[in-house]
């Protein structure tokens, strides 16, 4: 891995380099995605079926687009019992963590007859996009569906591309079944996002769309935002390890590669105060890459967006971590808890040498759907809050309103909104 002595110029260049991966920069695909979205909006099922045949090679119709109970039972017979056990353990941890995020309605009453409050309501429907193809990502299925189920969403719809045989990957399907999906449809790509946003004859529309996907899915979510809510427009995966001389170089190298293997745009960065650690980590990375199965992707990823940054002080290293605002941040220092208190921007923070990033991906419980591309400066991980909405509650008795009515009228008249003022004034004529 390339090693760079950290200064203001190198930090600026690296940040600019990382921002090139932003999905919003892929404008060349926007017109294609917009055409697909509008086609599905106008022709509904007919367009969905055509795009599924063209892009996935599957013959899908109104008769078979929705997964049946028989298909779920068939998938169950194809999944290894040991993997089922692991998924159930993971689900328990994910559910217990997200149960602690639940919010409740509240009311505050005063002796003068004023009652103020907040009503928390689960969204009535949510669509979860899950990538398909040869790969299966049951962990993402669990992370997107379980918070919605915990929030109390009554209708949770999953969409995922079918194989050429017209079937859903059995592991993906069983993860959805276990997590609480109420409907599963065999459709992927931008056409799936459009179907969820606008509805078709076979797929009723939803209120919000969540879940990862390729650039076409990301741009489709962007295109339908406003018609429905979305979680975020996710960029490529990224990890930063913040370490001092006490870190184990072999562990650090392994953790950097755990994200670099995702794709050629993934980012893996070590920022450290130790040049000796930097050199050892670089050597360990080279040895690992020779042995790991996704060697070609790893090499491209590290060549494009892999860095070892050597800072003069820990404060400088921490400032860099806050500026990059990585999706995953591992802190492997003498006192990681102290360093953690100074971190302002990160999607998920992993503390100590035995809290490696895959622990969060699969098992610990916190959500692995995280803000990318610097958006951890203002976005949070996916959670129960993403599947609820809040309504304000206001009640005033006449006795409570009377001492305030002239103030309200004066405020309204200052804004030249005389009907507002009149609405209050008529009650005290």
What is this structure, in a nutshell?
Helices cover 45% and strands 16% of the residues.
The value of Rg in angstroms is 25 Å
What share of residues is helical?
A: 40-55%
Biggest sheet: strand arrangement: 1-11-10-9-12-13
Q: Structural class per helix/strand content?
A: alpha/beta
Strand content: 15-25%
- Shape descriptor reads globular
Mean pLDDT: 94
Counted beta strands: 14
Can you walk through the features of this model?
This protein is of the alpha/beta class and 429 residues long. The protein has 18 helices and 14 strands. The protein has helices at 8-19, 30-43, 45-56, 69-78, 81-99, 138-151, 170-179, 189-198, 215-224, 249-260, 275-291, 295-305, 314-324, 336-340, 357-362, 398-401, 405-414, 418-425; strands at residues 3-5, 106-109, 115-122, 125-129, 155-160, 183-186, 208-210, 229-230, 238-243, 267-272, 306-310, 328-332, 348-351, 388-395. The strands form three sheets. The chain has a six-stranded parallel beta sheet, sandwiched between helices. A five-stranded parallel beta sheet has the order 6-5-4-7-8, with helices on both faces. Strand 5 (155-160), helix 7 and strand 6 form a beta-alpha-beta unit. Helix 6 (138-151) runs parallel beside helix 7, helix 10 crosses helix 11 and helix 17 runs antiparallel to helix 18. It is globular, with a radius of gyration of 25 Å. The chain starts with a strand and ends with a helix.
């Amino acid at each position: 891995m390339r090693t760079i002595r950290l200064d203001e110029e190198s930090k600026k260049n690296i940040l600019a380099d990382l921002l090139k991966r932003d999905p919003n920069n892929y404008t060349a695909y926007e017109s294609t995605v917009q055409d697909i979205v509008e086609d599905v909006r106008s022709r509904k099922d007919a367009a969905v079926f055509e795009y599924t045949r063209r892009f996935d090679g599957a013959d899908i119709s109104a008769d078979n687009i929705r997964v049946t109970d028989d298909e779920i039972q068939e998938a169950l017979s194809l999944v290894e019992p040991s993997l089922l056990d692991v998924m159930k353990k993971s689900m328990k941890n994910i559910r217990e963590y997200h149960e602690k995020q639940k919010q409740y309605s509240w009311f505050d009453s005063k002796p003068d007859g004023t009652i103020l409050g907040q009503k928390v309501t689960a969204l009535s429907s949510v669509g979860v996009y899950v990538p398909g193809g040869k790969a299966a990502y049951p962990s993402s299925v669990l992370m997107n569906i379980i918070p919605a189920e915990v929030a109390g969403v009554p209708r949770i719809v999953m969409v995922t591309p079918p194989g050429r045989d017209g079937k859903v990957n059995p592991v993906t399907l069983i993860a959805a079944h276990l997590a609480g999906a109420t409907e599963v449809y065999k459709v992927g790509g931008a056409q799936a996002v459009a179907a969820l946003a606008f509805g078709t004859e076979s797929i009723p529309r939803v209120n919000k769309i969540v879940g990862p996907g390729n650039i076409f899915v990301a741009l489709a979510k962007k295109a339908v935002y406003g018609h429905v809510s979305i979680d975020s427009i996710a960029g490529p995966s990224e990890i930063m390890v913040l370490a001092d001389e006490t870190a184990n170089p072999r562990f650090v190298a392994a953790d950097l590669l755990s994200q670099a293997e995702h794709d050629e745009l993934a980012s893996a960065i070590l920022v450290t105060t130790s040049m000796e650690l930097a050199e050892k980590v670089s050597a360990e990375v080279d040895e690992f890459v020779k042995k790991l199965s996704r060697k070609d992707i790893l090499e491209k990823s590290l060549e494009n967006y892999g860095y070892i940054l050597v800072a003069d002080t820990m404060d400088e290293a921490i400032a860099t971590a806050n500026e990059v605002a990585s999706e995953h941040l591992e802190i492997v220092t003498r006192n990681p808890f102290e360093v953690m208190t100074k971190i302002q921007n990160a999607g998920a923070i992993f503390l100590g040498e035995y809290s490696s990033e895959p622990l969060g991906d699969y098992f610990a419980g916190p959500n692995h759907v995280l803000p990318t591309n610097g958006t951890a400066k203002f976005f949070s991980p996916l959670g129960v809050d993403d599947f609820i909405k809040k309504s304000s509650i206001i009640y005033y008795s006449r006795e409570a309103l009377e001492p305030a009515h002239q103030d309200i009228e004066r405020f309204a008249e200052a804004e030249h909104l005389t009907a507002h003022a009149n609405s209050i004034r008529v009650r005290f004529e």
